[in-house]
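User: Sequence for AMP nucleosidase below. Tokens please.
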Amino acid sequence: MSSKLPVNNSQTITDFLSLQKGQLAEDSSEDSYKFAFDDQAFLARRETLGLRFQLELLKPEILLHEHGIEHTITVFGSTRFVSCQTAQEMKDGANTPPEIAKAQRALLHCKYYDSAREFGAIVAVYNATQTEGRNKLYVATGGGPGIMEAANRGAFEAGDNTIGFNISLPKEQHPNAHLTPGLSFRFHYFAIRKMHFMLRARAIVVYPGGFGSFDELFEVLTLMQTKKVEHFPVILVGKDFWQGVINFDQMLTHGVIEQADMDLIHFVETAEEAWAVIRDWYQLA
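Assistant: Structure tokens for AMP nucleosidase:
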């Protein structure tokens, strides 16, 4: 009986580039004679995976350094939320039951989009008071829609630099329109993207979201719990949501976490409260 185990369970770089096995063989002199750095098929081989990791780590690192970006506040949250203005427009134009239900959900969650936009603006206003780049905190997100767009938008509209760490997905995620030119990055590997979320992060602000937001949140908490990174504020916006979908008290009761782990988390309701946690933590002027 033949095995049902898959050869691999990921979208490989060859899948992403639509390269066929024959294109990786380098059988002709035309192929083998190419410069290694100019040979897409060679760079897509399994053996060059480590090089691709290095390049994805190095490119944003160099460009962020050239832009003087030392400190970031990383904002996570749902890709599905829209502004309250957009949600109201959806309601006004809804005719069918599915459209009405979608508009009602949008109205329920739009406060988070508007809050993230406000938070981005608050950070930008603070940065405008600072003369030295080493004292500034820049908004960084996953670069896509929803909460990411909102936080980038608030900072961008206030005239500040804003960063997007985008990711290639089967349903392509495009950069939102509120990213500073030269600070919009694209990743193939989630692991390297997550490293850039963390490398300059001085706080994490997490709005309600789905699997991706949970993944990013718990990775940060695990890194802190295991002392792989210095403690900094982890701020969850919307206490009812977070305590409704994650029973932190039960985790404490079962002994799978300790109170010291819960002390890493700050629950807030507004953009101003989120900024106050960061301001007080770092004693910012």
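Residues 91 and 104 are 7 Å apart (CA to CA).
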